[in-house]
Amino acid sequence: MYAPNNDARDPGGPAVTVTNLVKRYGSFTAVDDVSFSIHEGEIFGIIGPNGAGKTTTVECISGLRVPDSGSISVYGLSPRHDRDKIREFVGVQLQESELPPRLKVGEALELFAAIYPNPLDPQEILESLGIKHIERSAFKNLSGGQKQRLSIALALVGNPKIAILDELTTGLDPEARRDTWALIERMRDRGVTVILVTHFMDEAETLCDRLALINHGRLRALDTPEAIAAEAGTNRLRFVPSQPVADEALYAVEGVQVVERKGRFITVTGTGDLAASLINALAADGIHVSELEARHGNLDDAFIKLTRQTAASEGVQA
C-alpha cells in the first residue's frame, strides 16, 4: 500500500518548528510559550492531561487555528499564510470529526482523494484499515470505532508528508489498536512524519521516537519516552514474605516510600537499589522473600509525577 515517497525526504532541516507559541481563548491561555522542533520521518508524540493544550497546539500547526503570538514553520511554510499549500501535504485526523450523515464511507474516501495531487488508492486504504466491508455504509450508521478508522483513512488518503493524528485509537478494540499501531509504523518507515496526540502511555511508549509533555499550556518535558520514563525515578517490588512483616519494618528499609498489600502479596514502591535493600533488611530479621517481581518506573509513573509537580508549583489541582 505504502510505496516509497522520495519527495517526503528533506534532510536540510526539521519538518516542523514551533517557536514561542501562544494561543488564548478570551482570558484563558491554552498554549503558553511552547517551542519544539519535529524531525522529518519521526513519530513525535504530544502527551498531557485533558485540557493541557495538546489539541490546540496541533490545530495551530495544521492551520486550523491562528496563534496569538509565536511562529510555526512547516517545511518552511507558515500555516497562517500558506495554509492552502500546507494542506496539499499534511493529513489531519482530529479528535472529533463529522461528515454529512448520508455520505457513504467509500464516497468520502474518493472525495478526499480527489483533493490531493498524488493520493493513495482509497480501496487499498479501506482494506488496510479493515473497513472495506462498510464501504457502502452511511456515516450516520457507523459505530464509534468505525468512525475513528474512517477518520484515520481520510487523514492518510492524500499521501501526506506529515500526518497529524489526534487521539488516534480512542474507541478502538485492542486488536484494532495494534493493527493501527503497525500502520503508523509503516508510515514512518516510508518517511512520513507523524505527529501523534495521545493520552495512552503504552501507545506513546510503543510508537513515539520523542515526546513533548504539555501541561497547563506549557512544555514540561521534551525527550525520548525512555528518558522521560526515567524521570519517575521509582522502582516497584512485589513479593511474598516467608512470615508476617509489619509496615513499620518495611518503611524502615532505605528507599521505601509506599507499602501496599493485596492478599499474601506485598508491593513496595521507592527509589535507589530497592531490591537489594529490601532483601538484605528482611533477611537480617530472618524473613525471606519469594515470587519477587521488579518493575522500574515507566511513562505512566513519570506522567503522573510531572503533572503533579506542575500542579503543586502552580497551586492547582492535577
Summarize the structure.
The protein is 32% helix and 27% strand. By secondary structure, it is α/β, with parallel strands linked by helices.
Mean pLDDT score: 88
Classified in CATH, the superfamily of the largest domain is P-loop containing nucleotide triphosphate hydrolases
In the residues, how many domains can be counted?
Answer: 2
- Total beta strands: 13
**Major sheet summary line:** 6 strands, mixed
Helix content: 25-40%
Give the DSSP E fraction (strand runs of 2 or more residues): 25-35%
Strand arrangement in the largest pleated sheet: 5-6-7-3-8-9
Q: Specify the number of helices.
A: 11
Task: Describe it.
The strands form 3 sheets. The protein has a 6-stranded mixed sheet with strand order 5-6-7-3-8-9, with helices on both faces. A 4-stranded antiparallel sheet has the order 11-12-10-13. Strands 2-1-4 form a 3-stranded antiparallel sheet, with helices on one face. The relative contact order is 0.14. The chain has 11 helices and 13 strands. The protein has 318 residues and is α/β, with parallel strands linked by helices. The radius of gyration is 23 Å and the shape is elongated. It has 2 domains: 218 residues, Rossmann fold, CATH 3.40.50; 62 residues, Alpha-Beta Plaits (2-Layer Sandwich). It is 32% helix and 27% strand. The longest helix is centred in the middle third of the chain and has 16 residues.
